[in-house]
Amino acid sequence: MIIKTVKLTNFRNHSEYVLECKDSTSLILGENGCGKTSVLEAIYIATRGKSFRAVDADILKRGEEFYRVEVEYISGEKAVVAYDGESKTFLIDDKKTKRLSKKNKYPVVLFLPSDLNLMSSSPTSRRDYFDRVFGQFDAMYGVSLSKYEKALKQRNELLKKEYLKPDEVFYWNLLLAKYGMEVVLKRKAFIDEINEKLTDVYQSIAENEDTVQIELETMVDGDENGYIKALESDFERDRILGHTRFGVHKDDFIFKFNGKVANGSASRGEVRSIILALKFIEAEMLKKKLGQNPIVLLDDVFSELDETRRRCLVKNFRDNQVIITSVESIE
User: Is 273 part of any domain?
Assistant: First the structure.
């Protein structure tokens, strides 16, 4: 057991809410729209530092001036997150900070209903999903990605100028190349590590001999110099379009099932088994890399799984603290 209690104040549609967590599995039961997912969101903010679905202004209950999340751990430690309508602060061990430090973050496996549609969703959704996962594997991944996105935003702003010379974006080209290479190399390494286990874990769930693989589809091949040259050669086209065409912000993650694109070749049940396998590997890698069993947050996914996959889910997460939302009781 990791989390003992969770207290919310003015968070989403909750004026006041308290969750007393059980030793292994805690169930949050209620109809759709009653705020079950908001509780998982609050836990995620307290353990990871930011929401998985919104900015703070959208989280604040309408008509209120602040929100507060208080998480008490079994160790007796407390983490308090407070938002005053303008800025968010974290209070841990009587130390107030604007960001949750690396040492105060705790690994989380988050399973949302939308994850089951990962293969058929947009490239942006798949990038967001894997960026969130990879950011837990390696804190520096998130740093590199953030710096890349800031440089990309600056370059794109310049590209909207009526008159622009190539040397005006040269500095941003350098930054995009530096951080873009850091991002793509880590993406390749993490995907390779996932692929080492993916087929075996999938087969243990589906009980067949099908193969599964994830391929990183990227424009980037080579080193920083090659990255810079690609940006320079695209300058005129980018200037006309008003945005940067080349880079890791266009990467995609393609699922392959028996060598074919899974979206279209894998059945609904097979897709669900692939996503389950991915979640199990994520939890295993988090424990291996961080030395901690992650908290598992399951948002109304039991209703999307058949009995066999439900049992598999429970079995694989039996050593984790699991918090589940559902519209019906789970036996």
Answer: yes
Query: Long-range contacts made by residues 37-41, C-beta under 8 angstroms, separation at least 24?
Result: 37/299, 37/300, 37/325, 38/8, 38/11, 38/12, 38/13, 38/14, 39/6, 39/8, 39/14, 39/323, 39/325, 40/110, 40/297, 40/299, 40/323, 40/325, 41/12
Please give the average per-residue pLDDT across 315-323, as a whole number: 93
Do 151 and 95 have their domain in common?
no
Domain count, the chain: 2
Work out the number of other CB atoms within 10 angstroms of the CB of residue 194.
Answer: 23
Residue 222 zone, left/alpha/beta (φ > 0; ψ -120 to 50; rest)? left
pTM confidence score:
0.92
Alpha helices by DSSP H, the chain:
36-48, 56-59, 123-137, 139-159, 170-206, 224-233, 235-241, 262-265, 268-290, 307-316
Q: Which domain holds residue 42?
A: 3-106+293-326
pLDDT over threshold 80, residue 1: no
